[in-house]
């Protein structure tokens, strides 16, 4: 009898799993015919987020040369390497281009079609353009996957959930703001994928409060300016007259750091050095567990500092006051943060060449401006300085820190759920907007259509309006009849709008304190609250405690998503290849 595998989600993660199934099947699948059912209401390849049917004004957040869907020999995995073109090689683009998302959708569709072509003849893929509603079935028996609009479920020997970013129910604060908006005729747009948001209620010329200064804000900015007919002439924005006035703030009060605008040269820092597999294994082996801030963060700081100073001393030795070999020895021996700071102060004369992660994370902490207009000038100067530094190879230690962040993330993913702060910090430093987007922000600010609110932005609903304040500008407040939460919904299974995830949660699937779905770090099987892996259900993606950085992998960085996809694909093929009942009987 033919085996039945259901993969829920046909976006980049589902496509990546399909590629790994095709790569590993010649070695591992010796069973009968196999039907793979891909369930997704959106087209395979791009899925919802990277579908081709979206505004051509929306860019990728990565350069074309930094996007690949194919493995290489830097990936630690049991399966075979199947190399393929990066986005820029496939599309014939300049590698430094930031492509639009429509092009990425076409690339992903091509990867999907290639994976289909690479599957053995006895494997057939069926795409079901429906939403999966729930998964039912006993632990020791076939599963049933119910689809919206279908009277009968899909039978499944195994199920893989690769559903990507999910919509979420509002949290208590958002619920109160939304209720207030309904009562007073205001507009409240909760966290969402910006390309799916209905922005028509944001009126031309009207003030709009925006909480969030990351990538969701960049999309919002584009759709409400160029998307409404405005245009840029050099560094000047020419409005169409249909734009609202955006008042934006966030916890930090500044935009994410610009993408770095130059290439790496010379030797890379030898990573990992202070946070590698041995340190991760030691943390996992602690009987009482570990605390991120107390036990993990010092290792992260040490690793990022090592990457930074290795580059500074080897590429820019004229800005140091000590031989690298001496510094490296003393840096490794430094017992605490105070020792490290004293060493750095003696060895690196210019404070601009020192790595201060605390100052990077809180750039406006303690900073106060006398007026709202003064703050506009101050933040424009901050963004301009960031753009200069991020495009100047004299500060290539910043690029080394980026490489350090990738290395650290690859290790931390093995620790499971370490809280949301780290993921936000990583995105702020390593996954910011392209430089041209920040230049557009500056142009919009000078045109008066983008106004900065400050750090620690607080929003209240009173007197029939929304009101925003920030300690950055004492005494300043702005009122508006519209509020946009410019960020993606939190990936928690308890508040997911998706009925499939909610039912898994209700049935007893384990969640972390942050609300992520617990999975076996070895192969992605869903864990129950007793810690038992489900024999027939797997999950990968940002809603699990094995989430990985970014949507895509840079070539030759050993991407952990590739490792996860390969491990899950191999486990699934081994189970389906005639050994399913034997394995499940253990």
UniProtKB/TrEMBL annotation:
SUPFAM superfamilies: FAD/NAD(P)-binding domain. InterPro entries: FAD/NAD-bd_sf, HpyO/CreE_NAD-binding, L-asp_N-monooxygenase_NS-form. Residues 6-166 form the FAD-dependent urate hydroxylase HpyO/Asp monooxygenase CreE-like FAD/NAD(P)-binding domain. Residues 521-531 have a biased composition (Basic and acidic residues). Residues 521-562 are annotated as: Disordered. This is FAD-dependent urate hydroxylase HpyO/Asp monooxygenase CreE-like FAD/NAD(P)-binding domain-containing protein. It comes from Streptomyces cyanogenus.
